[in-house]
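ok posting inputs for the NDP job
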Amino acid sequence: MALFTVFGNPIAHSLSPQIHALFAAQFQLTNSYTRSLCSPGQFAATVSRFFRTGGAGANVTLPFKEAAVQVATHLSERAREAGAVNTLVPLGQGQLLGDNTDGLGLVRDLQTAGVRLSGLEVILLGAGGAARGVLPALMNAGVKQITLVNRTRARAGQLAGDFPQYPLKIVGARDLQPLAEPYLIVNATSASLTGAKLQLPKEVLGSAACVYDMMYSGRPTAFLQEAAQAGAGEIRDGLGMLVEQAGVAFSIWHGGLEPDTAPVLAKIRRDLLNR
Ligand code: NDP
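and the output
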């Protein structure tokens, strides 16, 4: 039986074991996928023990995605760009590849929903790990420009400084105006975890073709409800991104096997609603 896990703290809430069990069932694989709670000082040692004892692959979630960059002996281009690792792949002889599937997860979820990213303008809210992870993937998918909005402006400046090759603009939330061309708003802040307001002008939310909140609970967040009330073309939560990033990781670990993500997303959403 192949052993997989997800490292994080907290970790009890993680949906990854259910998602990966559903993927494995599609190929009649009897994988084991567990949750590994790590104390902050123990992350590297716990990862090393897992792979020494036969681990076939692992995911990494909060707060260890940056620490996982140090644990990996090799990095994929997208992990290097994101400065964060969410997928670890054993290469043999103690070598570990660190990859990042979050950005591709978002892009695939948007594309599945019929959002054409090529030439689209994006307003990206947040400048933390999630924003950093999805920014290169959005640019590589062909978006025209990204407007960065973050509560702490200096942090947005830092993020933009790390990607001088991309057309990025920094604007304060209250100074935002609806864009002239169709645009997508991606909320990559953690504000939805507490229900905190993002102070975006109503007309900016209402004129968006699509408003996406990376947070997921199975139900629309207050931010998405506000966007729908303001008249946004479409609202989407981050559950699809979660399932898609898991699908990319599964494929990496299983020599290119591509799980069918749509029924898995539908089942996970149903389960969340029935909780
Ligand atoms: P970080 O802690 O690295 O960054 C948090 C960001 O949110 C910062 O930009 C911070 O701004 C901003 N923020 C926090 N509170 C507020 C507030 N009250 N008002 C305005 N801005 C605020 O977190 P991550 O980037 O790792 O995660 C962000 C979100 O993305 C989480 O909700 C996480 O669950 C989600 N996520 C979803 C994934 C999925 O698969 N769907 C994958 C990865 C993440 P400041 O710089 O000013 O502090």
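notes: Residues 103-237 form a domain with the Rossmann fold fold (CATH 3.40.50.720). Residues 62, 102, 105, 126-131, 150-152, 155, 188-193, 196, 198, 214-216, 238, 241-242, 245 surround NDP (CB under 6 Å).
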